[in-house]
Structures are given as C-alpha cells and as structure tokens.
Fold this protein.
Amino acid sequence: MTAVEDAPVPLSAAGNPIGFGRMHRKEDVRFLRGEGNYVDDVQLPGMLYGAILRSPFAHARINSVDTSAAEALPGVKAVITGAVLETLGLAWMPTLSYDTQAVLATDKVRFQGQEVAFVVAESKYIARDALELIDVDYEPLPAVADAKKALDADAPVIRDDKEGKTDNHIYDWEAGNKEATEAAFAAAEVVVTEDILYPRVHPAPMETCGSVAHMDPVTGKLKLWTTTQAPHAHRTVYALVAGLPEQNIQVISPDIGGGFGNKVPIYPGYVCSIVGSIVTGKPVKWMEDRSENLMSTGFARDYHMKVSIASTREGRIQAVKVDVLADHGAFNGVAQPTKYPAGFFHIFTGSYDYPAAYCNVKAVYTNKAPGGVAYACSFRITEAVYAIERIVDCLAAELNMDSAELRLKNLLRPEQFPYTTPTGWEYDSGDYEKTMRVAMGIAGYDELRKEQAEKRARGEYMGIGISFFTEGVGAGPRKHMDILGLGMADGCDLRVHPTGKAQVRLSVQSQGQGHETTFAQIVAHELGIPPEDIEVIHGDTDNTPFGLGTYGSRSTPVSGAAAALVARKVRDKARLIAAAALECAPDDLEWELGRWFVKGDPERGRTIQEIAMDAHSALELPEGVEGHLDAQVVYNPPNLTYPYGCYICVVDVDPGTGQVKVRRFIAVDDCGPRINPMIVEGQVHGGIADGIGMALMELIAFDEDGNNLGGSFMDYLLPTAMECPDYELGETVTPSPHHPIGAKGVGESATVGSPAAIVNAVIDAISPFGVRHADMPLTPANVWRAIQGRNVRTDMAVE
Amino acid sequence: MQVNVTVNGVEHSADVEPRTLLVHFIRDDLQLRGTHWGCDTSNCGACTVWVDEEPVKSCTMLAVQADAKTISTVEGLAKGGVLDPVQQGFMECHGLQCGYCTPGMMMTARALLDRNPHPGEEEIREGISGNICRCTGYKNIVSAVQWAAENPADATSEVTA
C-alpha cells in the first residue's frame, strides 16, 4: 500500500495537484453552462414518446383492457399492454432478488401506480392524451398496506401469480448466534427494548428515471440511453431476459441527475421503451414524471424493528438482538447484490465490543411499490446503524448515563482490528475513540451539556445527539455477493497516448460524485501525468470495461483500486521501455512522480510523457515488451472497506409547536486518505441533508386502502436550505490495509450515519417529558404528540 | 397559438398548442436544454428561468403566457465566453454535484444578487429555498453565492476548460 505522502503534492502547469488534493471538478463547466447531457436531453431523428398508464388501485383484478380508442387517436403509433408483452414472453421480468415483477400488469394490479399499458406517440402530449382513452375494467380487491397485517389469516394473497402461494410471506432469515445472545440476555443486569420504525422513504433524485431506446431495424443493434447506475449489469440483464445478443446491446448512461440507489433497478418503463422501439422501428423516449417516480420506483427502508440491548449496570454492552418485519411491497424488487436477503443488515452490531448478537428478519409482501434498498443505504446498513445507535441512546437513558460516555466505554479499540463481529464481518481498520474525541472537541461537548442544563432550567429544550457508525462498502467479495450470479469485480483500462496524454476507462458511472476528477487524480497520483491531461471515460458499455456500477459507495473502494492498479501496471511497463531508451537494466531505474531515472544518476531519466512517445516510436523494444503504453486490469476486492465516523447534532425544540431546528451538525468521517477533500466534503454535506430530511420530514405513508400519501413534492417533503445548518466537518485518516491507496469510500456515510444523530438529539431535547423514543419523521406534529405522551404510527394513516 | 419571445437576447417566434408548458417550449421548441424539469408542482425549482427579469418556475407557466416577454435561461448567463460570477462561484465552492438543479439554482441566485448584492447567509438560504438540491446539502451553494457576491463580474476570469 502506498502511504499518504507527507511531502506537498506538486502542482501542474494548470495549478492542479498531480495526485491527491483539492481541485476544481473537470465536469463542472458543461453543467454550469447548461450543456450537460441527461437522458431527457437526448434527441434522435424520428424519435417517438412513451407514456405509462398506471393503476389507480392498490389491488384489483384486471378484467379487460380496451385500447381501441387510444390507438385511433391521431399521432399514436402503438399501445402496448400486458397481453401484448405476454406474447413476447416479457410480461414479467426477474428482479435482482430472485423474484419476478410485472412489466405491464396482466392478471392483477398489486400497488397503486403499477404499470398497466404503454403508449407510443408522436409527442409526449399526445401520448398522455391517449392514456385517458384506455379503458381498463378493474375489479377492486381488498388491499393490505400494513406490513403488520400482511400475515393475518384473512389477508388477501397478493402474489397468487406464484404457484401454490397462499400467504404474503417472502422469507425468514437470521444471522448471529441465537443461543449465546439469549444466554447473555438471560444473565443481563439491564435489558432495554424498543420498537423502532425506519419508515418508507424515497431517494427522489432531481432527475426522474427514463430511457431512450433505439433498436436499429437494419443492424439489430439496440442503443439504450438510460438513467442507470449500473450500465454493464443492465446490459447483461437485458441480454439474459429479452434474449437479445449482448454484443448488440449498448447501454449508455449519460449525465445522471442524482441516483442514490433509485437508478439501480431495471424498471418496466425501460423495458417498454425497448419494446416500443422494436414495435415501431423508431427511437422511443420515456421519462417518468415526479409522481411516477415517487409512487412506483425503488423506495427505501420500511423496516419495523424490535431492538433489544443487554448491558451491565455499569454500561458494558453484553448483547443486542433485533427482530425485523420487512415490508418489500408487491414484488421483492430489492436491488442489492449481497447473498443475504436483508443485505448487510447484520452489521447492526455497530462499532462496539460485545460478544453476542442475533437478528431475525421476516419479509412480507404488501400492496405497495417494490424496492427497499436505495437512498444511499449501503444495502440496509442505514437501518442497522439507526437500530444500534437509537437503542444505545435508550440504554443510556435507562442507565441515566451520558450517551457519549456510554459509547466511549464500549467502542472497539484500535488493537482489536482486524475485528470479526459477532455476525461475521471483518472490520479492516479503525481508531474509533480518536474519531469520537475529535467530534466531541469540535462540538465542545462538555460546554454543550452545560448549556443544555442551563436552558432546561429556563424551560428551553435543546438536545444533543450522537451517532457512531461503521459501514461496510465496496461491494464486493464474492463470498458475500453477486448480482444474478455476476461477481462484483470491476475492470479499468488505461491508455497513454504518444504525446503523454491519457484516457482511463471505468466500469463505474457517476451520478454527480465527480468521477471525471477523482479518477484522473488517482491516475495522476500513480503516474505523474497532470489530471487535466487525463480524460475519464465512463457510462457507455461499448467504450468501457465490464463492471457492476456505482452504488453502495463502491466506486472508490473497487474502481478506485482498479484505477490505481492499472496505473501501476502502466508504470511497470514504462520502466521496461525507459530502460531500453536509457540503455540500462530496468532494475537500475528508480521512480519519482512522473519519471523513471537511473539510480545514483538522477539527471539521466525519462519522463512518463517521453516514455509514452518512446513506446509508440521506432525505438527497439526489449524482448517481450509490446509497443504502446497501456494496460488493463480487473479488480476483485478481497474484503469490504469499513469507513466510519462520529456525528453530533444539536437541535432546539419548541415544545409548544413541536418544531425542530437543527442548530449544528458536526461530522467527523474516517474514510481513509481523501483523494479530493473538496469532493469528499461535498458527499458528506449531501448525506447530512438526506439525514435531516429522513429524520424530520420525508415519508411515503399509505392509507389502509393502499393509497400512496407521498406521491408528489407537495406531500413528500425534502429539506431546503432553510432546514439545513452550516455543517462542521472534521476528519481522521485510518487507511484500509487491503486497498491499494487505502481509500474506504464515503458516498453514503453521512446518509447512513446522520439520521440517528438527529433523532437522538430530538429525543434528548424532549426527554424531560418522559420521551424515550418516537419514530421518524419527527415532524412538528409527531414531536408534539410524543411530548403529549401519545406517539402514533407515522407510516399509516390510521386512527 | 403564436408565441413571440426574446430568449437570451434572441427573438423567437413559434406556433404552439395553448397547453404547452413554458419549460417544454424552452426545451423542445427552442432546444435550450439547460433548463431542467423536476417536479410538475413548483416545488423543486429545477425549471427556474426569468420572465421579464423575474424568476419563475417554467413548469407551471404556459408558453403562451410568456408571449411578448423577455426570457433568460442558464445558457444566457455567461457573457462572451466568460462565466457569470455565480457560475464561477459554483465551480470555486463545489456548489454542484450532479448538476441537475444547478441551472435553476443559479438563475435564482443571480436574481437574488441583482436585487441584493451583499446578502447575508440567512438571506441567501431564504432566497434559494424554492430550489431543491439533493446532492450538496446547500452549504457549498450558499458559499458559491457568497463567492459571487464578493467577486463581481470584472473579477471573474475567462474559463476555457
């Protein structure tokens, strides 16, 4: 592993660091000028427009679908129904969790907003007009929107399409050591249990999902511009599902307006746009509207958790157990690549040292949209962190102990790494107490507690909340994961042109993370080529190596490793060529950034740019050395990386209205070395805002008939600049021992870690009212109810 | 219906359906695709443009309502190849990530600074509160607007990247 250099990073002629450090993003100018190229910006000659007819019911039998009036509307080119898809064998498609999902409904609709028909027309307005003319005869059926009622004997069976299915049960899954955990609880001096809901939320990227499909009727080549975080995986799935020859499928993920996991699954609209293009012989664009995005695409969470913690009276944690009721909606469309049905949830043991832990996850179908793993959750680590960090605060309340003191007493110690958790994860490196002390120092923790005491004496309600999280990211090792059988190794190609400028091709794809800058900096760090001389190519399956895409904070841990290794491979090749040019042995050469030189004679050397020209020149190359200066690698991660951090939130609560004001938010992250600290900080900022949203306002609730109550931005509330404070960031740096540059990934850290800090702060503020827990979102109404001692369910509109 | 508008100083005339939304007119008829669409309900501000110097959400205005008016979009922010200080500020301060909300956010910010050249942090936060960003958590956007306030047009260098 290369250590982080202490020496200052040299600057290029353009003033950029030739390696790690702050630099402006290379991608910014096109966005600032309004010249980005998002899917909805793609225009092709003769392009048609698609629109989807969606179910108004959560559960209904489809008796008939009459499309004749729609087809007769001038400008309509095709109307595709489930019956049409059935003839093509495409009415159903596999999900990434080994279930099936209707592309267009045939027998029944199973959630409000489900796809029923697809219109292709000359304009998007005509396509929408035609939807009004489709006559569907629905026979409404009783719906089950409440996961807690999904397994009742009289619950309607949602998935009667599955042969022999007589209930709404999907799976039971467990992890950890049940016997040891039960024994620890039986012997414990203190046990605290709490029912904790992580409600259904939605990633809601600013750009909704969509695609432009062009099946060339002459060549048989399908070009698909689409909002995908995983273009290569999608290409393979289309080949497997539709039987299209994979070499004839080109998936292009152009500029993407935010993903957050919302753009990992394959949605019916993508498939319909392809079918629409095949049927009409023209390119077909489909872009969903905001309500379609919120009501039908991948939601997140919906975990009902009963969390218990066992402890000594002195606050030494002995064991934790969690029973989960997981609401997966109408299809198990969980888009996650782990071998475990609950993803990485069993990392719920958190950042603490105790021997016993056990979880059981029971998953059910409901008449709600499919999804479950999205919104920067690192495959359910968000739920896991929330569970442990909330219950630790409940324990602190029970013990009447300061929540920081309780955490410090139980944090894993540096000498315990690599540390195998009670549920089997191998944490790679960490110095947790140091990170927590840095956060407490920035916060001025002791002073905050004094201020809180003074304010309480005056009847003012200020709260301080802490969250300490450990994530496992960089999916991932084959022992833990695959996507429909595909291992999660990622390729990287690097070509240095004769003039010393380079192109690096990635398998991963940016949705705003700044790959065009970060990956250029990684190559610059290894080769000494200025980052402005390195073009990063991504998001086009015909022009990049295979890999599994960007989600789960995996780009830097996996593709970042690949980029470093491919650059080192080029450096090794450059050494052989330099030796030939300098007429010496390769072993006589020594590397300094950007240059091989003769040991003991530093004046005699060749820069990487000179070597690039040598490699393409008429220079006599040594035996076994090919011309050109390029290389490719595939990186197969040996372990996950384990970023961690300590977050502290300070809130003020108005007990009269329940209004929460987030006054301060301190985030100290340890993600290993920071390639571009500016970009890392931006990732953390965004995640904190996500946490504020989830903790305080975001919610997809339902009524008992399965009506979605969060289907627009008037109902699904997102934080604005007014609700977000001026974040205070800090860092510690503990490199991953197994990653080529030690980087651990940071994209989801703050989304994973921040909700618990905010909720803990609010509960801390209103604890004088006897409140130990209240469920998210902590809207003024919900906080006020908690203060009144009458918590209500936040996820269902029930009385 | 006939619509005559001046967009970023260029006159356009087009025949549109009366129901055509201004955002669709700008994107599809005028092919100025820097203006984005995000929500349909005036909540997100991705579609913010100026109509007669006033920021509006073009997803909830009809193209015909803009007849005989002057429209400014993100494509008109840079002058003669030189980025507007707001654009430069967004780059300096990492005020954008995915870039989708950025055009609307910058149009709002430019209008704010035109009215109040030296806004305080709270004024900036309130000024951009009709524009949602899902990536940045707003901190760097606030910094970007402050940067633009502190570096008015003559201090901005040409960007050729």
